[in-house]
Structures are given as C-alpha cells and as structure tokens.
# Entry
Amino acid sequence: MDEIWDDERLAFLMEHWFPDQIWTLRIGVGGMNNTTRFVEAGGISYVLRIYETHRDFNKVNFEHTVLLALADQKLPYQLPQPMRLQTGGTVLTIDANEGKLAALFTFTEGSNPLWDNAQQLHRFGETVGHLSKTLASIQVELKPEYPPYYKIEHIHPRCTPEVIKQFCLHPPESFSKEITNLPYIWHRFEAFYEEIPKLMTLPHQLVHGDINGSNMLIDEQGHVVAVLDFEFVTRDVRVMELAVCVSDLIDPTLSEQKLYEVCSVFYEGYCSYINLKEEEIRLLPLLIELRRLDVFVHFLGRYLDGVDAHRVLIDIIHNTVQKVKWLEAYGPKLVNIFKI
# Structure
C-alpha cells in the first residue's frame, strides 16, 4: 500500500525506465486497489502502478498484451499504453521476495465525468459500444487469466461459495445489524447459480469488465478522451460490458422515470455500435445483479484479508441490497428500454 511504498523506494524503480533522464514523482488521485504515482520525464507525463491485488505476472502480461493490440486500432479516445523497460518487457518484478509487480503507463489529461446531462450519457454509451466492438475485432494469442463474471466462485481466492454462505448466514458480531441483509444476499447467490447454464450460451468476447465513471476521462467540453484501467480485461459474455455500466447508472434514490431516462440515453449511444440479441437483452437484469454480487464478494475478500475495515463492507452490503431489490422490482421494465 501507499504507506509502504515511500518515495525513496519508488524512485529506485524509475531507474528501470529512465536510467539516464531526470524525472519527478508526485502523488495524485488513484484507485483503491493499487499504489499509483505520477511521473514527469522529458516533458512527458506517465502513471506508475504497483499492483497490490495480486502477484500474478500472467494477469498483468495479458492486460498489457490487449492494450498493445488496441494501440494498433484507430480509436477516438486514448488508452493507457504500457511503457517498455530497458530489457524490452512491460512488467517489472520488484524483487524476488515480495514478488510485487509494477508497470509504467502513458498519461492522459482529463477529469472523471458526472452523468448529469444527456449529452455526456450518450457519449458514454457510444464509447462503451465502440470499445466493445473493437475488443471483439482484435486477436490475442494469450489465454485470459481472469475468469468470466459468472464463474463467481473464482472472484477471490478466500471467498469460496461455502465461505460466502457461512459469512452471510452466520456473520461476525460486527455485522450483527445485517442479519436481514446478509441472508438476502446469500439467497440471491443461490438463485444466480441456477441461471449460469443460460449465461454460458450467450455470445462471448474480450471485455474491459470495469467501465464506469472513475475509469473514464473527459475534456472541458465533455468529450470522452480516455478509457482507463484494463486490469480485469478478460473473455466474458459480450453483454456483461453493458451490465457493468448500467449497474453503476442505477441509483435507487432517483425516480423511476428519471432512472429509465438515464439508461435509455446511454443505451442509444451504445447501440450506435452494438446490436444485441434478444436473449442477451432478456438476461441483462441477471447480469446487472451479478455485477453487484461480484462487488460484494470482492470487498468481502478485502475484509477477510484485513485490507478494509468492516464499515467499508457494510456500505457495500447496503448498496448491494438496495440495487438488487430495485432490480427485482423494476428489472422487467428496464428490459423494455433495451429493446429499442
């Protein structure tokens, strides 16, 4: 984590990319999962990432292979490009004992969008649709390291179905106020497992897997200038990309009509590039729910690993229950929006 990686140790890493240059490091806004620093060298900005969620070289190598393949496409927005080391690769193993991995990426100036107007929502949809179409067209010989979303038992190594069940039905004392919410989440897990065979028959392709406002940048005019963080790119159900986005757009505090309008405008942009099959649309509410369950398992794993305090997981539990219950009530109506 950031407190471990002081600037002196981080400075040592930079010699692997810039052995004969003057460079500077600064702290900036980063994600929850990795240590991030911003680097200036030769008048150019870069992003240094130290992977904290795993020590798996193959996972990082696959991510970088996909990004390098996408670099050959003419995209109307930027993607983070991994910079080559002096040795020729793009993944740095920090030391043999820790096994931590680091990489340096290109930097794009911009800010995270707020989906508070129709124009930006439409552009968001267009970008997701365009990227999905592009990912379907590229060829990558390496095998993906991350499983598809529906293989939910592989989300976190400590979160087997039995561990999830025990936590939900017999939670620790610090989660005693969640005695209604946690069994409900487990009930939804049980229901989901029965639907997996249907999901396996849907069209599959490479997917980003985590597109949301925090992984997208816009300029001052509201145009999308970059899509970030391909760490979880893998081969999955094509419509999962859409499900991830809609999951984040669903805000139960909005009126039903307003929420439908938000999703409709986004989907119009998405449809500029992607034509979904009827079965993909029909199963979309299930995949949106899967995204919420996936987030719960991810943060349960972080809690069990001692990364997050229990209050962080409690917030995730509440968010999961609110959105899944909304889907139970309004999912069928939501499907009608995506039949335009």
